[in-house]
């Protein structure tokens, strides 16, 4: 009954579209079928997992093994919250688990296992908050920019008129300073607002973007900096503004270079996430581009503010690079996450890969 049963269930409920990991086990805890989310959670393909005992994929030290046997024996559904799970690859996760026995004799009974990653749900909540904060900040910045740029135009015009009235040419030095400083402030305001509002989307290969950035940075460092690559060749092309993405990735890599220096190690890594939620929206496929470095890490008190304009730990920096990169990611329906400990900082650019009407 097992394989046919889950085939019927898949057709009825479209289990592969769920973010919840679903696994069907027989009475001996052999895997009969699993959906895409379970493949991602277990770090294994269905072709390899089906027919294998669960213990080959999940370490037997996982404390919920007794729950599986109890649910099968009692023929009664069970729910447990925040259960630790360790995969055979050593990945540690926290899941909510729902066990639903499927009717049959004790020796022929099947067990439907539903797994929801608690840490992923918490991350989704943080991402939604980050997304909303970015949207609010953008509106505030638009208002501030409008209020600042108008008087700057007046100051510049007045300085030009004043320069024309000055009889002493030596005094033009002061009006030139006023004009140049006004221009600098206007440029700064424009950079704070980030990239242009409308994206020019076309089919884009993310690895062409990363390779272009890698070549630029290695040329800037005059060969002193080497950037490692760990690419997933299965990533498809997707609609994006290649020029904008290049700017975002360039900002991330330059930030990593400033953090670790030319003697450090920077790695570009790409992966695909299936049935993944970004900014509160669920997507079938999401590109995950990671930029990691072995620098000293980001101070904990700075992490929540890292993507705000003018926030920087670098005395020579403007604090706009990461803010602009986040704006570009948001315009593509994605976002940038960061994890940092001393010796390892990783920025992850998440980009939905569905066909989309790319706009701000």
How would you characterize this protein structure?
It is a single chain. With 360 residues, the chain is an alpha+beta fold. It folds into two domains: 2-120, 2-Layer Sandwich (Beta-Lactamase); 197-360, Histidine kinase-like ATPase, C-terminal domain (Heat Shock Protein 90, 2-Layer Sandwich). It is 41% helix and 25% strand. It is built from nine helices and twelve strands. The strands form three sheets. Strands 2-1-5-4-3 form a five-stranded antiparallel sheet, sandwiched between helices. A five-stranded mixed sheet has the order 7-9-10-12-11, sandwiched between helices.
Strand content: 15-25%
Please tell me what the overall shape is.
Answer: elongated
Q: Looking at CATH, which topology of the largest domain would you report? A: Heat Shock Protein 90
Low-confidence stretches: 356-360
Main sheet attributes: strand count, strand direction, barrel closure: 5 strands, antiparallel
Give the count of structural domains: 2
Strand order of the largest sheet: 2-1-5-4-3
Rg measurement, Å: 26 Å
Cα-to-Cα separation, first versus last residue: 50 Å
CATH superfamily of the largest domain: Histidine kinase-like ATPase, C-terminal domain
The helix fraction, in percent, is: 40-55%
At CATH level 2, the architecture of the largest domain is 2-Layer Sandwich
Instruction: Count the E strands.
Output: 12
Level-1 CATH class name of the largest domain: Alpha Beta
């Amino acid at each position: 009954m097992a394989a046919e049963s889950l085939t019927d269930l898949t057709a009825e409920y479209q289990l592969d579209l769920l973010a919840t990991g679903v696994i069907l086990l027989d009475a001996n805890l052999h895997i009969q079928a699993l959906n895409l989310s379970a493949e991602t959670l277990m770090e294994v393909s269905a072709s390899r997992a089906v027919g294998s005992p669960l213990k080959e994929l999940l370490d037997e030290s996982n404390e919920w093994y007794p729950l599986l046997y109890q649910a099968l024996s009692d023929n009664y559904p069970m729910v447990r919250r925040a259960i630790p799970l360790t995969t055979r690859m050593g990945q540690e996760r926290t899941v909510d688990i729902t066990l639903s026995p499927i009717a049959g004799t004790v020796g022929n009974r099947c067990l439907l296992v539903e797994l929801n990653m608690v840490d992923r749900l918490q991350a989704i909540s943080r991402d939604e908050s980050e997304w909303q904060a970015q949207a609010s900040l953008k509106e505030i910045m638009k208002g501030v920019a409008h209020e600042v740029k108008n008087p700057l135009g007046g100051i510049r015009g007045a300085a030009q008129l004043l320069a024309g009235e000055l009889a002493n040419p030596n005094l033009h030095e002061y009006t030139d300073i006023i004009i140049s400083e006004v221009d600098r402030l206007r440029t700064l305001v424009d950079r704070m607002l980030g990239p242009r509002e409308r994206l020019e989307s076309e089919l884009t290969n993310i690895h062409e973007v990363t390779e272009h950035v890698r070549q630029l940075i290695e040329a800037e460092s005059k060969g002193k900096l080497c950037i490692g690559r760990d690419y997933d060749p299965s990533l498809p092309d997707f609609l994006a503004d290649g020029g904008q993405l290049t700017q975002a990735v360039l900002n991330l890599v330059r930030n990593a270079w400033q953090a670790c220096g030319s003697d450090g190690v920077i790695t570009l890594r790409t992966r695909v996430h299936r049935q993944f939620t970004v900014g509160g929206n669920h997507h079938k496929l999401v590109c995950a581009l990671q930029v990691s470095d072995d620098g000293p890490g980001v101070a904990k008190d700075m992490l929540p503010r890292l993507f705000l304009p003018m926030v920087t730990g670098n005395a020579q920096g403007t604090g706009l690079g990461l803010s602009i990169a986040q704006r570009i990611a948001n315009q593509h329906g994605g976002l940038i996450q960061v994890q940092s400990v001393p010796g390892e900082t990783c920025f992850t650019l998440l980009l939905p890969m569905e066909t989309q009407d790319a706009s701000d």
